[in-house]
Amino acid sequence: MEIWINPACSKCRGALTILDAEGAEYTVRRYLDDVPSEDEIRDVLGRLGLEPWDITRTQEADAKELGLKEWPRDATARDRWITALATHPKLIQRPIITADDGTAVVARTEDAVRGTLPN
């Protein structure tokens, strides 16, 4: 599995603590340094079963500067949102875990993190 993190984020650090305590094998991706491409974001969205606006941090300064709250949230604007996430990775909700079984989760809670672990 892979986990997209921002090391400054307490939710990310908490997720890593849980994964380590459970002995999980994972790869860390510091997505602010290793920015996901638009195709990678599309793939993760498909795995999450979410739309780009569902994983966008709309309170970030970049979001306010772009006026994201005013953007349409429909199929016609989907690519525009994905481009914004790839261009401004701080806008991506975190942490995101992509599991080996093809699923993914925005792992902001302990239960969400544990749900990615093999039974």
TrEMBL record:
Hey, which family's this protein in?
Belongs to the ArsC family.
Which organism was this protein described from? Streptomyces roseirectus
Q: Name one GO molecular function term.
A: arsenate reductase (glutaredoxin) activity
Keyword list (alphabetical) reads: Oxidoreductase
Name it: Arsenate reductase family protein
| Presence of the UniProt keyword Oxidoreductase in the record | yes
Keyword Oxidoreductase present in the record's keywords: the answer is yes
According to the UniProt entry, the coiled-coil residues are: none
Q: Which PROSITE patterns match?
A: ARSC
Task: Give the lineage.
Answer: Bacteria, Bacillati, Actinomycetota, Actinomycetes, Kitasatosporales
InterPro entries (alphabetical): Arsenate_reductase, Arsenate_reductase-like, Thioredoxin-like_sf
